[in-house]
Amino acid sequence: MTLTVPDFSKLKVLVAGDAMLDEYWFGDTARISPEAPVPVVSQRSAEQRPGGAANVALNVAALGARSTLAAVVGQDERGASLTRALEQRGVRCELFRSPTLPTIHKLRVFARSQQLLRIDAEQSLQACADEFGSLYERLLRQADVVILSDYGKGTLCRVEELVAAALAAKTPVLIDPKGTDFKRYRNAYALTPNRSEFEAVVGRCSDEAELLRKGEALRKDLDLDLLLVTRGEQGMTLFEQDAEPLTLADAGARSLRRDRRRRHGHRAAGSGCSRGLDGRRCGGPRESRRRHRRRQDRRRDGEPLGAAARAALAGQRRARARRLAGARRARRRGESARRARRPDERRLRHPARRPRQLPRGSEVVRRPARRRRQRRRFGAAAQRREPARQLAGRPHGRARRARVRRLGRAVFRGHAGRARREVVPDVLVKGGDYRVEQIAGGDTVLKNGGEVRVLGFKPGRSTSALIDALKRGDR
Q1: Which sequence positions are flagged as catalytic?
Q2: Of 165, 200, 330, 334, which one is least surrounded by beta carbons within 10 A?
Q3: Whether 120 and 203 share a structural domain
Q4: Last residue of one domain, picked from the residues 405, 421, 437
Q5: Whole-structure pTM over 0.85, yes or no?
Q6: Per-residue b or e along 164-175, where b marks 16 or more CB atoms closer than 10 Å to that residue's CB
């Protein structure tokens, strides 16, 4: 489809709505403020741009039409800056300058192409509704078409009256809406909500057919000639009276998706590689993926990576490759990938029965010992001596407990996990001035035949008394 832009040089367009001044600060950040945990931005440059309805007026002038802006600004430097920026680009400014209200201002702070902060300085403009209404009626007689740009700041708080005045003058009205009350814009010529604003009014659309059905119903309900729903990457959809809905796809989004597919390979190749298949088998461009990773490395933080950072990233990739290889081996053996372990890991049976150590039957996964002396400690002789030590009633020695702490991890399965949960002490001791019924877990110990004891303390020797004495400086 080929679209031809008509000649707008003789068209007089009145843009009315919420005008604001957008300001941008660009800089760098390399440290954190000592006053608060926030980055310190060293400002490098600043830029001011017309925003809101003022930006709409600029776009109209860029199309070649005669653009006039009707808005409310303050009698301040920001209002003067906004007026100068518009007039330099061919926009006629018909502004009401309020002596009490400031010009709406939005400041955005960027560092390294990342927005860090936005500061809004604004007040509601509803107090100027009468003055703006008189200005609008005077300019309406000179316009061929009216665009109402609503940003919810109060300039268009009486939008029904503005639409009625335009209808009486037989001037078409195009509205960029705000909020969820679209009934205020009834009888306008055209309405241009985005998809989120559209779905906030009609409800979520699960598919294309539902969106088309609800869009046509909304157009008829508001008695609009045109309803244009902008949909981001999906383009836009136009609902027109006595015509079928027309969807225009975004050519830029299509090009972006095509380039993305070209860089990362086909969908089948990606799904095959995600299952651990070799890139040459599933048809994926392995070399292009390697080049992409190298580009990511070079572009990180905007500068080439050093040798240490490259080595760290390479180590992470090798570890991930080992994990994927282990998962593939586990699938070939019919095991679950979650239970897969490296070939150099071993599983030991620890027969401990003491409550403060591993329960009987627990599976212990130990990583390989670093030295031969550590491997000998876990040899077959040590495992044979352990049951004899338990049967004789002798407790575990310090060296054995230290070796247990060096184990990689313990996995409780079957009766071992249940035994761990069923351990209940025979005697529960609590110090202080508690009563037995106030001690947490005391009822469980008593129910299982145990004993609960409360230990007192010497008067004046409690922890609280000692802390108070230290604060007073007593010896």
Answers
A1: 250
A2: 334
A3: yes
A4: 421
A5: no
A6: ebbeeeebbbbb
